[in-house]
UniProtKB/TrEMBL annotation:
Coiled coil: none
Lineage of origin: Bacteria, Pseudomonadati, Kiritimatiellota, Kiritimatiellia, Kiritimatiellales
Protein name: HTH-type transcriptional repressor GlcR
Species per Swiss-Prot/TrEMBL record: Pontiella desulfatans
Domain HTH deoR-type: 5-60
Gene3D superfamilies for the chain: 3.40.50.1360, Winged helix-like DNA-binding domain superfamily/Winged helix DNA-binding domain
InterPro entries linked to this entry: ArsR-like_HTH, Carb_Metab_HTH_regulators, DeoR-like_C, DeoR_HTH, NagB/RpiA_transferase-like, Tscrpt_reg_HTH_DeoR_CS, WH-like_DNA-bd_sf, WH_DNA-bd_sf
């Protein structure tokens, strides 16, 4: 198979998401490399904080709920994140909220220059470690492994210090009545604060979340400037978003 570490890294992380663990011998066979190389790859990924080594193999560093979310609609999420990243210009300072789709934005920033990201998204860090053109300010607060994000009063206070050109926010659900929503009140409060600090608010979501509102309201539709989604958004929601003057970008 591939001899490039970057390619093997992607395969290993995919296997961990799909299977929940990998064994060294099985991994070496699948990658068509020696057991020594497979062990070295796992050691390197552990150094990056992407997995935890076990006796004879490795398990993911992320919470199981995060792994499930990363796997769901994987291709669609990548397309949405790529389309969102295309909206970022050289020299931009942006806010990125916690979420598996929003984290992928950083993956598609290669080639852009002098980008500064303010975020509570710890998952995003794995995509920025090797990009010298991306500067990250991580807000403080309580870390929640099931969200791979930081929340709480400290994070809200920290956000008061920033003004950014664009906020890229993730959601857990949406409905005509409630607008954009989250599962948890603390998450909704933080994302709403992020939106307040930005000149432009861009929502990232696959269409499957529409019609399935979460517990806590983040923003009404008309508080967003754009939605990046897939091609399966219903005509009903397209109409409601158009009324709210939200630009729809389909990836």
């Amino acid at each position: 198979m591939s001899s490039s570490f970057a390619e093997r890294k992607s395969i290993i992380l995919d296997l961990l998401m799909e299977e929940g663990s990998v064994g060294v011998s099985d991994l070496a066979r699948k990658l068509n490399v020696t057991v020594v190389t497979a062990r070295a790859d796992l050691a390197a990924l552990e150094e990056e904080g992407l997995l935890v080594r076990t006796h004879g193999g490795a398990v993911p560093a992320q919470h199981s709920k995060i792994r499930e979310r990363m796997q769901a609609y994987k291709g669609i999420k990548g397309d949405i994140a790529k389309a969102a990243a295309a909206m970022i210009e050289d020299g931009d300072t942006i806010i990125v909220s916690a979420g598996t789709t929003t984290a992928l934005i950083a993956k598609y920033l290669l080639g852009k220059k002098s980008i500064h990201i303010v975020t509570n998204n710890t998952l995003l860090l794995s995509y920025t470690r090797t990009n010298p053109q991306v500067r990250v300010t991580l807000v403080g607060g309580e870390f929640r492994p099931e969200e791979e994000g930081v929340v709480g009063p400290m994070a809200l206070i920290a956000l008061d210090q920033f003004h950014v050109s664009k906020a890229f926010i993730g959601i857990d659900g949406a409905s005509v009545k409630q607008g954009f929503t989250a599962h948890f009140v603390e998450s909704a409060d933080l994302v709403r604060k992020m939106a307040e600090q930005a000149d432009q608010v861009v929502v990232l979501s696959d269409s499957a979340k529409f019609g399935k509102p979460g517990f806590a309201r983040i923003l009404p539709f008309d508080a967003a400037d754009a939605l990046v989604t897939d091609h399966d958004l219903t005509k009903e929601f397209e109409k409601e978003l158009a009324i709210a003057d939200v630009r729809i970008i389909k990836s």
